[in-house]
Fold each of these.
Amino acid sequence: MISSTPQTDTVHVIGGGLAGSEAAWQVANAGVRVVLHEMRPLRMTEAHRTEGLAELVCSNSFRSDDAANNAVGLLHAEMRRLGSLIMRSADANQVPAGGALAVDRDGFSAAVTKALHDNPLIEIDRAEIASLPPTEWGNVIVATGPLTSAPLADAIRELTDENALAFFDAIAPIVHKDSIDMSVAWFQSRYDKVGPGGTGADYINCPMTKEQYDAFVAALLAGDKVDFKDWETNTPYFDGCLPVEVMAERGHETLRHGPMKPVGLTNPHNPTVKPYAIVQLRQDNKLGTLYNIVGFQTKLNYGAQQRVFRTIPGLENAEFARLGGLHRNTFLNSPKLLDGQLRLRAQPRLRFAGQMTGCEGYVESASIGLIAGLYAAANARAQSLEPPPATTALGSLLGHITGGHIETSEAGTRSFQPMNVNFGLFPPLASVPSKKPDGTRLRGNEKTVAKKQALSARALTDLDRWIADHLRVAAAA
Ligand SMILES: Cc1cc2nc3c(=O)[nH]c(=O)nc-3n(C[C@H](O)[C@H](O)[C@H](O)COP(=O)(O)OP(=O)(O)OC[C@H]3O[C@@H](n4cnc5c(N)ncnc54)[C@H](O)[C@@H]3O)c2cc1C
């Protein structure tokens, strides 16, 4: 018989994606029992294709790995210091991608699944949680992601007394490498950047003349799009993941200043002629047999995608391993609904993690899973955990979700939107560097670089102090 006494010593994590997998790992690492409930393969989402935990549904990139100059690279470094399973599995399965950390998606997911499966404190329950969790689950992390199944989403929406805002995201197509014409395309990373596990020649580049670009933009605009359903017509796009044809609608040159910018690359087949625009493809699997078209998330229908993308020089005979598509995103109005420890104010036994909290991206979702796991484990041990310093990438993202966002909308509609980690979320430096080590003044972009590096250095120092003061002490108690 199930006891009706709340079980706070066992943590229940709902959703075995990026956030839920990391959360379960952190809870178990703190010595607390955890049950991870994942509905796949019994019930699939619109985007997941496998039963693997932490499946990457679109790009295989964890973005920049540069901890000194880039906020997401800094978040990688912080998560590694916190023993992240997601980062450990990504590092073990990386594929070359210039300055980015990209992974073999199947190897990555298999590594996460195996580590969780092998952990004696973790039980994996393959079941959909189709209503609010039973009341006897006293310590729950909900990490069901942007594609949370409808019954659970409805139950949460009712509990929060809000209409969860949904918006559109779109995924990019993947091409078989051996179908790309390398007598037209060439391998090169922008500015020959080497990056982690890279060679400086990691991307496949397809050049376009002005005429080809003009015709391509016209074809994008004319291509048939997937129809909107009634409820979707007023749903806005998230700016960080605009479909390629929506970017084209914003202006004829928009793509040339975005994913198709022709800078930092030289066509070896025709070195004297500068391409007017360039389409890049990034390696998608460890074998190097699949490449995704960078920034080409799309809502064109399948027929239009094949026709229009095959007008790209080098892709005339492209075979697509997966075509792009649209998806829904569900997330809470977290600054209003969650407390500083990611608990639902209306029902504090429910803690949220991942993209549902209004962060955006694989790494950000996993990082919020990480901190939710640490909080839940502290709860289970009747301890409390100070939040990570606001000066860290993790603390600044958490702060944004749980209170940093300022509600600016009039007429009562919420303005909170999913957010990637960025240096704009960090508290300002007490003193901004103005001189180089040799005493000469920093100029122009040097100042921006020095500021980012100072923010990163401060973050890592503060994170180390927080780990020593709070996590090591908690572990010893
Ligand atoms: C189509 C699509 C493309 C995206 N592309 C990118 C990208 O290219 N790069 C990027 O950085 N981010 C991308 N994102 C955004 C986001 O970072 C990812 O969705 C990320 O996986 C979010 O992590 P998560 O753990 O919150 O959710 P998920 O990784 O989606 O994990 C949620 C898990 O919960 C399970 N689940 C759902 N409902 C239930 C239930 N009721 N009971 C039990 N289990 C349930 C799901 O099966 C899933 O395994 C994309 C999102 C989508 C939907």
Amino acid sequence: MTLEDYILAHSDEEGELLAALNRDAHVNILRPRMLSGHLQGRILKMFCRMLRPQRVLEIGTYTGYATLCLAEGMPEGSVIHTLEINDEMEDFIRKYIDQSPHREKIRLHIGDALELIPQLEETFDLVFIDADKRLYAEYYDLIFPKLRPGGVILADNTLWDGKVVEETPASDKQTLGILAFNEKIKQDERVEKVILPLRDGLTMIWKK
Ligand SMILES: C[S@@+](CC[C@H](N)C(=O)[O-])C[C@H]1O[C@@H](n2cnc3c(N)ncnc32)[C@H](O)[C@@H]1O
């Protein structure tokens, strides 16, 4: 048994719907490793249990795995807006949202987050950034005015497979994007922050 097996065996199960989504993604969808998965999914749900957010924003839906986990932990009457640029994912995402007991909380928007975020007239309690690594700093600037004081941003993949501590070729725009984002957050005195070494790195950011 690996340590990861042990952690999963002693944490909550992901449930039948998410397990089915995960299997379906591994058979039918390109790059299934992009979805949050069992452990990170339970952590996202737990964050929602603890923070009790009324308004949540997810940037980068992909299969909807994390969306369903966030919605599962959110209180009744709350809403999650999730943004996905790839319209080929829409049928897959809706197939699973429709089967979820939390579907009433979920609003899926197909389009570019850079265009969609300015159109969202909401004040968010929690934002999950998990889309194009080259654009993390831009997403951050767009959402910051829409995040309430005391609100939380979670940014995924901020250790980027350890590449943040290696030499970065000028052609590697994704690593450069993550490095620029991490530096921007470090310098931003409007927030408190900590990088959790979970999976591929999850930065927790709290707005003062
Ligand atoms: C890592 S996946 C998201 C995984 C998902 N949040 C989860 O944890 O299960 C990143 C997704 O972001 C989408 N994406 C990339 N750039 C985007 C943009 N500018 N606006 C909206 N979605 C974008 C990609 O198409 C991809 O499906």
